[in-house]
Structures are given as C-alpha cells and as structure tokens.
Design goal:
This protein is of the alpha+beta class. 51% of the residues lie in helices and 15% in strands.
C-alpha cells in the first residue's frame, strides 16, 4: 500500500540512532537528557506497527500452521478470552508455530504465538486457556510500551531491525529465521510484569468460564520437561522466568477466584481433534491437512443447485434455501451447497447463519480463498473484527500471488488493524469554525432538514484513498436512497453530503462507507420531529 509507513525502515532507523548516541547526554544548561527514552517511546499506533511488521517478517521465515481447523480453533478460543476485556485497541491474532517445544509468547499489537508443542502438551482446555489468558494480559497491559518508560531496550526492537538489515543485505533465510526465533524466545518481561500477567490472566480466563488453577498445572509441565532434559532449558523459561516461584502464587490466587462465565463446550470437544490433527501435521511436516474425500457423485446435486439459483433470482429466498438444504443433505461432502447457502444468507442480511454455512464449506474444502473471503465479509458485517481478520488472512494465504482477491483481502486486514478513520460522524454543515471543518458534530437532526453531512478524518496511512471511497445512504427502512462520493477537505478530512428529499421520514438514517463496492463501516443519525 502506497501510504503505508515502512515499519522496518523505522526500526532500522531507531537502531542506527541508538548506536550513534550515548545513553545520556549533557544539554547546554548542564542538565542531562536521555535520547534513548525519546527514541523508544511507544504509542498504541507504534505497538500496532511494530507487531504488524514483526508478524510479517516472522511469517516469512518460520513455519506457521495454516490448517483452517487448527487456525480457527486457536483463534476462536482466543476470542473467548478477549471478549471479556473489550473494548480493545488491538485486533488480537493467534498463531501456531510448528515447533515441538513448549513455548508461547506475545508481541506488541495483539500478536500471540503458540508453539505446536504447547497445544499437544495441554492436558485440558483450561490449561490452554490459562496460557492464552497470560499472553493476552501481556498485550492488554502494554508491557512492551511500559518497558519503554523504564528506558529498557528489549530484544524485539533491536532484533526486528536486525532482521530487516539481514533481509536487505540478502543474508541466508536460515540466519534470519534463527534470529527471529531467538528474538521470540528471549523476549522476557520483568518479574513485575510476569506477576501482573499471571494475576490478570487468571481473571480473564475465569470470565470465559475456565478454572484459574489450570495455568499452574501447565507450569508444572514446563518444570517436568526441564527435569527430563537437564541440558536443554525449555524456551518458555526464557520468555517467562521464575516459573517455579510463581506456581504457589497462582495457586493461592486461584483459591480466591471462581469462573464467572460458562465455557463453550465445543472447545473441550475440539481440543482432542485439534491435537490429533496437529500431531499428523508435525509427523508429516505439513502446514495444512489434505481436504476430505470428495463427493462420490459430483453431479448428483447439479439440478438442485440450478433450481435454487432460479428461485433466488426470483426473490423466493426461503424456497431456495429449502432446496439447498435438500442438496446438502443429499450430498453432505459437496461444498457447493453450503457455500451457496452462505452466499444467499449473506446477501439477505443473515450474516450469523452465513458464517455457519461458510464454516461448513471450509471443513469440506479448505483450499478455496473465495470462501474464506466471504466468511471475512460476513464476520466484518457482524462487527467481529478479530474473526474477520483471521478469515481475510486465510483468504490472502490461499490466493494467487498478486491476484485481485488477495489484494482485497490484504486491504480488509489492514483497515481492520489500522482504523481507516481517526474520527467520524455527522456535522451541522453551518459552522466553518466548528469542531470539524464541516461544522459541529451532531447526533440528531430535525425532520425537514435539507441535507445530511457525513465527515471523517482519514488515518494518514490511507491519505491517497479518498477518491476510491463512497457513501451509501440508507433510510430508516434500510433502503438505499443515494450513493455519493467522498470529497477531500482540509488536510486529512473528508466529507459526503446527501440532499434530503422533501418527504424524508423520521428515524435512523445511515451512512455506509465503502471501498470498491465493499462495505467497511456504518454510522447513523436520527431524524426526529420537533416537539
């Protein structure tokens, strides 16, 4: 993307700057200042950027499990934990690294990595949820940014810049991969932050309904591995020190906590399936399991699919869905029927049911990028940004390099991670010196108003994209009234104006922002009658 700031260049510059200045310098007035503190202060935007660039680099050089069953399982379990701490500034991402050792680590911006050995060693879903809660707590607590406040310089910042330099000079991929692994393994937080992650991680997992004592059992597995291989320290002990001392504290805290939510039973049921699938991938050194056996008679439901398409085009939606359900029952191994069901449901606003249909399709055939893309659109429409990102990433991975679909998937990933708009809403359009260049923000307008003014302030990352954005205006019944261009204003500000018809009715009017025909976000304003 043309507007993207180069995170690797930024980190390389930071590293160069750190090499050129001492830790403290004398100012003209004789006082001391610390240039390292100024250079390494980290905002939430910086955390997003650093995590995003780290993830891009590490994915190029280490083996990430792309199997959709495993990827969906770890993502959905993670979202169960994150759901209890929303709203969050980051989109949390959960990856499985193909590595038999026991390890898990988090980097800024919501990126959390589990070694495959950790999933295989988990004795229960509670243990896995405990590790996940702990890693989420590192991100939620902004531990990386807070280390900046203490003027520490962790390996992640320096190591990522080193990875960028290695790539730029054409060093062998193995060297870069080794460096990435070392950065990950040695990313250690202070004892204070580890204790904090234990404390809040226990709370996060209990909100999702899991027993807080389970993390202590996982810690014990770590120590057992250390005793079994005394000359090889488990990677988890590098990035999570003082495990032995923390077991007693975790147990003591667990006695005071009780699960407050109800865990989804599907995760406990699916854990064994995921472990068996992961063991197969590890044994065969594959990243994704082969699709199930194709249907015995691929033409068996052709006539039903054609009939359903004809009914749908005649707006006989329920009848079309009935025919498609018959087709899915008749040939349960054919992915075409559930995919058609998903598309039909999504087109008529039934996004939750569409998600279920797309997921059934993926279980039958996990190779089609288009299915993952449609799943991402449905999740985004539901407001499930974390799951939408995971689906769009899967679509991008399965797309032909440079394809339009892959580029659209990448666009959705980026706009979900880095919000398109810094600020948005409706303005009165009458006060040029108001809080925005288009007047003062409003949430309601009177019936009889002549126009509605939508405004937004673009994230500088997307400064060149205003001309590609459109606004679809919807009346209180959800009917499209007009589509208007997004016009650039002063600086990063943009706007779009709807000239209201004389018969505009009271109720919630919506402005839906879209890019190349795909909806991104929607905002509403209420037209109300004067009392």
């Amino acid at each position: 993307m043309a507007a993207r700031r180069s995170g690797l260049s930024l980190l390389a510059s930071l590293l160069a700057a750190l090499a050129l200045v001492p830790a403290a310098c004398i100012q003209d007035d004789g006082s001391r200042f610390n240039p390292v503190r100024d250079i390494t202060e980290v905002s939430e935007d910086d955390e997003r950027e650093i995590g995003f660039q780290f993830d891009q680099e590490i994915r190029r050089h280490v083996s990430i499990i792309e199997d959709p069953v495993i990827a969906t399982f770890i993502n959905d379990l993670g979202q169960e934990i994150v759901r209890g701490i929303e709203p969050q500034p980051f989109v949390y991402r959960f990856r499985v690294v193909q590595d038999p050792s026991l390890n898990a680590f988090a980097v800024p911006g919501g990126y959390i990595y589990f070694h495959s050995g950790t999933l295989l060693a988990a004795g229960s879903i509670d243990e896995l949820a405990g590790v996940m809660g702990h890693e989420v707590a590192h991100v939620k607590g902004h531990h990386y940014a807070r280390m900046r406040e203490k003027t520490q310089i962790p390996d992640l910042l320096v190591g990522l810049a080193g990875m960028a330099a290695a790539v730029a000079t054409g060093e062998p991929g193995l060297l870069v991969a080794t460096q990435a692994a070392n950065v990950a393994a040695k990313l250690s937080f202070t004892r204070e932050f580890e204790n904090e992650a234990d404390q809040y991680g226990s709370v996060f997992m209990t909100r999702a309904g899991y027993g807080p004592a389970a993390i202590a059992r996982f810690f014990e597995r770590i120590l057992q591995e250390e005793r079994a291989t005394p000359h090889g320290i488990p990677p988890y002990l590098y990035s999570h020190p003082d495990v032995e001392d923390r077991i007693a504290m975790v147990r003591q805290r667990a006695r005071k906590l009780r699960p407050t939510g109800s865990p989804n039973p599907r995760f406990s049921e699916e854990l064994r399936e995921v472990q068996a699938r992961l063991a197969y991938l590890s044994d065969t050194r594959r990243q994704s399991a082969p699709p199930p056996i194709p249907p015995a008679n691929p033409h068996r439901i052709d006539a039903l699919l054609e009939q359903a398409a004809s009914l749908a085009s005649a707006d006989r939606v329920d009848e079309a869905l009935f025919v498609l359900a018959r087709a899915e029952t008749l040939e349960p191994h054919d992915p075409r029927a559930p995919f058609a069901i998903g598309d039909l449901l999504a087109a008529h606003g039934r996004q939750l049911d569409a998600v279920a249909a797309y997921r059934r399709t993926i279980k039958l055939d996990p190779t089609r990028a288009q299915v993952f893309f449609r799943l991402g659109l449905a999740q985004r429409a539901l407001g499930n940004r974390h799951s939408a990102v995971q689906a769009f990433e899967q679509a991008a991975r399965r797309s032909i390099e440079g394809s339009a679909l892959g580029q659209r998937a990448d666009w959705h990933v980026e706009t979900l991670i880095f919000p398109l708009l810094v600020e948005t809403g409706f303005a009165d359009g009458t006060a040029p010196d108001g809080a925005t260049p288009f007047g003062s923000p409003i949430e309601t307008a009177a019936v009889g108003a002549t126009q509605l003014v939508w405004y937004g302030q673009l994230n500088s990352r997307y400064a060149n994209y205003a001309e590609h954005l459109r606004i679809r205006w919807l009346d209180p019944h959800g009917t499209e009234i007009a589509e208007t261009p997004v016009e650039p204003g002063r600086g990063d500000w943009v706007s779009s104006v709807l000239e209201l018809p004389d018969a505009a009715t009271a109720g919630a009017w919506s402005a839906e922002l879209s890019y190349q025909g795909e909806a991104l976000e929607q905002h509403s304003l209420t037209l109300q009658r004067s009392r």
